[in-house]
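[step 3/7] fold_predict: job queued, chain A
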Amino acid sequence: MQEIAPHVNIETGYAGVTLAAINWPHGLILIDSPFRPDDTRLWRSSLLNLGGGVDRMMINLDGHYDRTLGARAMDCTVLGHEQMAQAFRNRPVTFKVQSAETGAEWELYNGMGSIRWAPPEITFTQQLHIHWDSSPLVLEYHPGPSIGAIWAILPEQQIIFLGDAVAPDQPPFLAGADVPAWIETLQELNSLSYQNYTLVGGRGGLLAQSQVHWQINYLKKVDQLLHPLVERKAAPEETEKLIPALLKGLPIPGEREIQYHQRLRHGLYQYYVRHYAPAEAEVVEE
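[step 4/7] structure written:
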């Protein structure tokens, strides 16, 4: 666990997403959860050393399986965007873990069994302030990366938890994305207002502003490559031909090649169907 500001800790050592714990006198605010049961137990144990108040609340920065499969095991109040809550209403109550090919992290691990979802008990639409300390934690809706994507902002400490808004050196999850809105969100993050902020990505931890630039350029490339297919009303299956160009230049470890290829194949197909050919196929979540 790394303390990035007084009482603000992040953890990048578990499979899946970056976790955070804000230790305030009123209680502990957690951001996202591990998805592996063993990691959840270790994370809960490490949180006992932080002390603080007795209350606990967990914020999910979106509804991606990597950050929500372990939410119920954290045994605390869950908070998220209203659109995320709607996504949970469309899911079965119990998730039976089985093989999938969306390129998510959870797919690389076995032994998770059946999981009961923990949909958010507290929701909001645009902005919500949590006053568990003298300075608030501000939750804001920032569309683009996925349905119900939010930022968690500590204005006084100048820290932002971004979720999947920026995930450099790997293909983004596109199935639930809105690329033009995502680019607009990142251009806001790239403005002078946030130049002095500490940026915490949902996959990999601390980020530099140069990585925000990288993400903008990558998403513009996605949009540009899709445009000719849209113009000629190509079949969704043709999006697979874009994968080599979108993997080119990424520093991909050998063991991740298949996973990243699957992530793009699934994401491009679902993105194309959702935005340009909704009658072609049933859309599924990542």
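[step 5/7] annotate
The first strand starts at residue 2 and ends at 5.
The mean pLDDT is 90.
exit 0
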